[in-house]
Amino acid sequence: MRALHQSIAILLALLPALAFTADTPYEESIRDWQKKRIEGLKSENGWLNLAGLFWLKEGENTLGSSDKNSIVFPSDHSKASLGKLTLKNGTVTFDAAPNAAVSVAGQPVTRQEVFPYTKPVVLEHQSLRWFIIKRGDKYAVRLRDLESPEVKAFAGIPTFPINEQWRVKATFVPTTGEKIGIVDITGRASQEDSPGRLVFTIDGKEQVLIPTGTAEHLFVVFADQTTRHETYGGGRFLDLKGPDANGLVDLDFNKAYNPPCAFTPYATCPTPPKENRLTVAIRAGEQYKGDH
Length: 292
What we know:
There is one protein chain. This protein folds into two domains: about 50-145, Tumour Suppressor Smad4; about 165-275, no CATH class. The N and C termini lie far apart (about 60 Å). It has helices at about 1-20, 25-40, 150-155, and strands spanning about 50-55, 60-65, 70, 85-90, 90-95, 105, 105-110, 110-115, 125, 130-135, 140-145, 165-175, 180-185, 190-195, 195-200, 205-210, 210-215, 215-220, 235-240, 250. It has three helices and 20 strands. It is globular, with a radius of gyration of 24 Å. A six-stranded antiparallel beta sheet has the order 1-11-10-9-6-7, with no helix packed on it. By secondary structure, the protein is mainly beta.
């Protein structure tokens, strides 16, 4: 009986250390955002299943698993010849090879214009899905494999602890006709419209970010003093709602997320412009433990 009493006493002594602290409503909202982020990456339209990026030449571009093709698809998920993509004056047309078994939305196709489009025209063959993207004046095939081992092996994203102090209010300073130079990882440069500037203070230091997008929906590519050390070397992204009635923007760094290039070599991510390189360390949002 004495041993039982001693065990109970020890257990009671440990209870404070074992006590569970429930998440605040704010922490719950961030965890829900993180969960949806993972689900998005693993979905059919996510970044984890990308299996190739192939730049088109003007004229005919054959595709299939045979190395005789201009574009070589994975041999275990593709017939030797699937057909050809023809790029002519900004229009891309697909012509299927005989018995290629290529479809769009489940319907077999023999000939299909796939670019330009208002919504991507996705070609299907076995577990492969591909469509056309345009970057600058170049066109490419973006290939997905719905049976990609990258999806099955994905172990999640490391993050900094959720801390509401990283949710700051930024003053939105509207601008007219301002553009910001953006360079993607392929070296392509563009001038993007910016509706204004975000001015805020962290650790007593004034910081400025220049978003792209519209006054209603802002997009930011930024770097900070954690970049290449604790976070992804190509910077991180933020999606923000436009300013409220007082001209303030909710700048929540707990929702700072890695670009697609952190997960696949087949993305064409923008990199942080020099104007968006913060002088403070933002230890919030997603981290990066891989090869920078």
